[in-house]
Amino acid sequence: MHNPLILPLQVVLEGHSVLLFCSSRKGCESTAKHIAKYLKVANVGSKEGSEFRDAASAVEALKRCPAGLDPVLEETLPFGVAYHHAGLTVEERDIVETCYRKGLVRVLTATSTLAAGVNLPARRVIFRQPRIGRDFIDGTRYRQMAGRAGRTGIDTKGESILVCRPEEVKRITGIVRSDCPPLQSCLSEDKNGMTHAIMEVVAGGIVQTASDIHRYVRCTLLNSTKSFDDVVKSAQDSLRWLCHKRFVEWNNDTKIYSTTPLGRASFGSSLNPEESLVVLDDLSRAREGFVLASDLHLVYLVTPINVEVEPDWELYYERFMQLSSLEQSVGNRVGVTEPFLMHMAHGAAMPIRGRPKKNTSGGSGANTLINDQSLRVSKRFYVALMISRLAQEIPVTDVCESFKVARGTIQALQENAGRFASMVSAFCQRLGWQDLEGLVAKFQNRVSFGVRAEIAELTTIPFVKGSRARALYNSGLRTPVTIAEASIPEIAKALFENSWSGQDDSGLRRMQFGIAKKIKNGARRIVLEEAEAARVAAFSAFKSLGVEVPQFTTPLLPASEDSPPRDVMVFPGAGHAKCHESVLGAHVGDERNICSDYVPQRASTEIVGEDMHPVSTIHIKESQGIANSVNIASMQEASPLSTLPSRNVADKGPVNAHNFPGGFDGFLDQWSSVDEFSFDLHFVKRSSKLSLTIFEILGLAVCWENSPVYYCNFPKDLTPTGSNDSVELWEGFRKRWSRIVGIMQQKSVKKTTWNLKNQIQALKSPCVSCQRLARLHLDPKTLNNIEVLDSTYVLLPPISVYNGLDICLVAWILWPDEESKTVPNLEKLVKRRLPSEAAAAANRDGRWRNQMHKAAHNGCCRRAVQTRALGSVLLKLLVSQNLSDLIETVEGPLVNVLADMELWGIGADMDACLRARHIIITRLKELDKEAYKLAGKSFSLNANADIADILFTHLKLPVPKGCEKGKLHPSTDKQCLDHLRDLHPIVSVIKEHRTLAKLLNGTLGSICSRAKLCIQSQRYIIHGNWLQTSTATGRLSMEEPNLQSVEHMVDFTTRKNDKDFTSMSMVDHHEINAREFFVPTQENWLLVTADYSQIELRFMAHFSKDPVLIELLSKPDVDVFTMIASRWSGKEESLVSSKDRDNTKRFIYGILYGMGANSLAEQLECSPAEAAQKIQSFKRFFPGVSSWLQQAVASCRQKGYIETLMGRRRFLSKITAGNSREKAQAQRQAVNSICQVSKRLSCFCC
Q1: Could you confirm whether domain 908-1079 is CATH 1.20.1060.10?
Q2: Distance of CA 541 to the CA centre of its chain
Q3: Residue 145: pLDDT above 60?
Q4: Rounded mean pLDDT of the chain?
Q5: pLDDT of 593-623, one tens digit each?
Q6: Better pLDDT: 507 or 389
Q7: Alpha-carbon torsion 1092, 1093, 1094, 1096, what sign?
Q8: What CA–CA distance (Å, rounded) separates 448 from 459?
């Protein structure tokens, strides 16, 4: 047929679907691409755009699949065309089938596998060829495949069209008119069918005697199609074979057939007898010599025996020779030899012999395997190589590329191996081989999910597969127990860390929380089941010894998830349902305090730490903060920080401070006498009616060496007991608060905490709720200048934290690259940097024994203990690397500065900002009209896809080199538009629109949305969040909003037509400088801008000691880039143009940042050859710089790190261990990090 695309098009235009069967996978994909191109042309200008948008969302779903986005589906799916064959992964098949059922896919090309077990009906079924693979189609398959058209109850009619050559018409006609072939019994195909059947009925106890055999075979289909004598003879032959192979044995005394251990193993594992013999032989030889140094031998044992993968023998031989000697020895041990693979790689046919004879004793060696066995073993080992790579967490796409197989094939092999592993494990169990059973059973999850051993346990949790297990493990959630204890936000953050810090999508966040909740519940179920099993086993053991143990009134496993635990206390002011929800961790935003003043009557000095005590269930914002100066060395000398708290003292968990011997005042006496302590402030950040930020402080957790963690409940503990006089109560309140102020401000006492910045902000204006101080009877006469805010909060005297140390900063200084990649998280740091025993001890010390999930796991007591444990380890590392001065003189004091910057914020001129927005919106509308006029059709300047369609399809502009392919269309980024700027005037319109749209939606949008009116100053103020540890080089960053990349001044014109609207129009010139919209927050304050003159270039001169560069930089009041451009070009300095000066600057900094010739060519708009010449010229002109660049890379390659001013190190392991791309990046980082980090340190030291 000359144009097979017309047949599906007719049905699609009528709004129906088409199934198009092809003979091969390759044919499916190529046909789908051809039809997509045809439909693409036919659908230009179609109004059915909504379907394409839905298809685009399906493409996004395909991108999130483990195997990534298939390029053919990426090309065809947006046009309603897809393919379906066994090469698709399970996730891809689900998405394609869903799109087809919902009408997003109208044409589906498929192989015959679609007709078996997949219900996808269609109006028209088309056969591209009358073949399935290389075989001609038969009547049964034709009817099954054609039956997809016009399914009853789904469509009113259907039709089938088979395309064939003229010489095939007669044969096709005979097939279509032929009757269905008669049914045949599977027992008659070969002896294996009858053998398997007899094995099952004997092992199942259905057949035991000879008469039972006769009665059984009479009930088979085979008996209806053949003579009874033939059927009996077949059954008898099978029984003889089973007895000979020792699956079944005959007892002459009882005249009964029974199964042997081998037979029971075969039946219990669902392996047929033939497979059982092979598995028995493999396992027997493995027990005699198992290779444990590599996973490959174990992978081979769980790889299915008969695989349908036909290897590329030449590739197979190449991969086998690339194996290590250890892995090659595994192949030789199981029967794979290099000569055989070489023979197959050269295409020589192997002679096929008869059925192999197996030694049931397991003693047959590799040298006795005949050719067909060698072929089977080699194919099996080939699949084992693929699965072993998956078990090492190598991506599926890499494995597919390495072995040249389809992704769906790899996934199917992996699933089959997982099932086969469970069968082999059951086989070993029935044989009593516990040694192999343990190995295989533990390996099953690794094979099924493609994970390493350390995360295999996590894959037992429902909804957790390989990628999620790895994400949880990397975040520190490494066992079902830790996941069961973690909060839902913590689990969601670990799973979706890449999208967590992006824009707040409530729907996406709900979905993420839903998945995290399912995983948490699954982990809890596993933990509870294990605990229940252990409890039952323990009680059973005690009972067998005659020991009576009282039973629990309720089992560990609740009967229903909806039933609250009986031992949960319902606290005043909270309903029973809400209390239960807090226990389950369901309400993330709950700010309630769960508290109780209950003290057990049987309390003694040994159980003081078990009291219930007010701890916040959640913090609105994590506590952060710093000190004015820190002396790490003296801290190390003062006490052995490496000593963890003694468990015999602190194993009772947190202790209420008022329960200290001597009461709260006794606690303050003890606290004031220690040389160092760890603390964490419990506070909530609120907004008042007057737009003031109020920090309500609720308590403080404190601990020191070998002490439990004490919790100070400020509203309760600061108020003295034993008096009702309000004046005395306030006086006692102030004295106790003053003592806390004095302790926190002691310069000689070392204080460690986590995220000190926010705690500094809270302690600068601490408030206590008047409602919580009801006993004090707020009376203006008794307040004595204590300010009350909003008639709701009492403002206390501020606290300045001296000699404080932020453990978050310590970890970042020690491991800048690792810690800067993720949001600082104390839980992750504890699990990553502390031994498991120390992490568990800190976890126990900070957990309230009588309080459940929220209070127990998110409280400040836990953070204080974890900070102490981390400090005992990390501070020693800091001192050993001579980095104490760095945190004492630079990073420590900087935290206080950042805290003040966030508190004061920056003012915004809202009126000027709104005027600028109005002008920009007007100009954007003009640009829309101008673009429409230039293009000749309307399109969106905000959509890259529309811009690409206009430039490259409608206007036929050439696609620049390097911009050929984006995700769905050619790239339209700045570099691409720069190449096209002289080819069409619309390009300049697009660039101007992007510049103004970015200014409007970015900077001006952030100002308008984030600026809040301050009642006191009557000015709009923006309070951002400064990040000190977000980059490896130490460069500060800002968020909510980011004001570090505010655009420079832009100028443009807008039309101003006269009243008569004549052809003559005037224009208004506008200059908008967004940086002028930022103003001081207070009257008589000034904003001062300062900039260092070529500071990075000066550091380059300092480190390289290049005399020429030092001479140039030493000249005052001279522009160094102009001088360099003058010397290079031979021009007078006065003749050097601004473009030459800018190109010289870009070039020098490009050298500093490690750019190559190609990147510099793009920067300088010249050819790579010219850029290479400039690089050589630079090296000749500055020989000292060239030598230093080489030495810096060589030193980093030798040491593994670079070292900057003040001894700070940055480890770059990829410079020796990475691939070529990673090594090149590490070399660039080695050079520019030295200057960038040193620049940063020098700026902050000034």
Answers
A1: yes
A2: 44
A3: yes
A4: 77
A5: 333 333 333 333 333 333 333 333 333 333 3
A6: 389
A7: negative
A8: 9
Neighbours of 1075 (CB within 10 A): 13
Dig out the tokens for 793 from the structure.
Answer: 């909060």
Q: Looking at the structure, give the CATH architecture of the domain made up of residues 1095-1245.
A: Orthogonal Bundle (1.10)
Strand order from edge to edge, sheet including 124-127: 81-84, 107-110, 18-21, 124-127, 159-162
Q: What percent of the chain has pLDDT over 90?
A: 11
- DSSP-derived secondary structure letter, 695: E
Which position has the higher pLDDT, 222 or 1088?
A: 1088
Least confident of 695-699, 730-734, 1242-1246: 1242-1246
What's the start-to-end Cα distance of the chain, in Å? 81
| Distance between CA atoms of residues 366 and 334, nearest Å | 6
CA-based nearest residue to 108, from 136, 137, 128: 128
Cis before residue 1041, ω within 30 degrees of 0?
yes
3-class DSSP assignment, residue 544: helix
Residue 1229 structure tokens: 């980082």
**DSSP states along 413-448:** HHHHHHHHHHHHHHHHHHHT-HHHHHHHHHHHHHHH
Predicted structure pTM score: 0.52
Interval 95-113 mean pLDDT: 85
At 1100-1120, the pLDDT tens digits run 888 888 888 888 888 877 788
Residue 836 φ/ψ, nearest 5 degrees: -60, -35
DSSP of 206-264, one letter per residue? S--SHHHHHHHHTTSHHHHHS-HHHHHHHHHHHHHHHHHTTSEEEETTTTEEEE-HHHH
3-state secondary structure at position 1115: coil
Query: Which of residues 326 and 791 earns the better pLDDT score?
Result: 326
Q: Are 783 and 897 in contact (CB under 8 A)?
A: no
What would the pLDDT profile of 517-532 be if each residue is shown by its tens digit? 889 998 888 888 888 8
CATH topology of domain 6-177: Rossmann fold (3.40.50)
Q: Residue-wise over 273-301: b if at least 16 C-beta within 10 A, else e? A: bbbbbbbbbbbbbbeeebbeeebbbbbbb
Do 1007 and 1042 touch, CB atoms closer than 8 A?
A: no
Pick the CATH number of 269-450 from 1.10.10.10, 2.60.120.10, 1.10.3380.30, 3.90.79.10: 1.10.3380.30
Beta bridge partners of 81: 107
How much is the average pLDDT of 457-475? 83
Distance (Å, whole) CA 1151 – CA 737:
58
User: Would the pLDDT of 364 be above 50?
Assistant: no
CA-wise closest residue to 471 among 500, 448, 440: 500
Run of H or E residues at 400: helix 396-403
Question: Checking DSSP bridges between strand 804-806 and strand 159-162, what pairing results, if any?
Answer: unpaired
Query: Residue 558 — φ and ψ, nearest 5°?
Result: -65, 150
Identify the band that residue 1067 occupies on the pLDDT scale cut at 50, 70 and 90.
confident
- Which CATH fold topology does 608-904 show? Nucleotidyltransferase; domain 5 (3.30.420)
CATH number of 187-259: 1.10.10.10
- Return the closest-CA partner of residue 583 out of 593, 568, 598, 572: 568
Query: Tokens 């420590």 appear where?
Result: 892
Dihedrals φ, ψ of 1033, to 5°? Answer: -85, -10
Dist CA 1056 CA 1050 (whole Å): 19
Taking the C-alpha atoms of residue 1212 and residue 1199, their distance in angstroms, rounded to an integer, is 9
Q: What is the rounded average pLDDT of the residues 202-223?
A: 80
Strand 693-703 versus strand 766-769 pairing type:
parallel
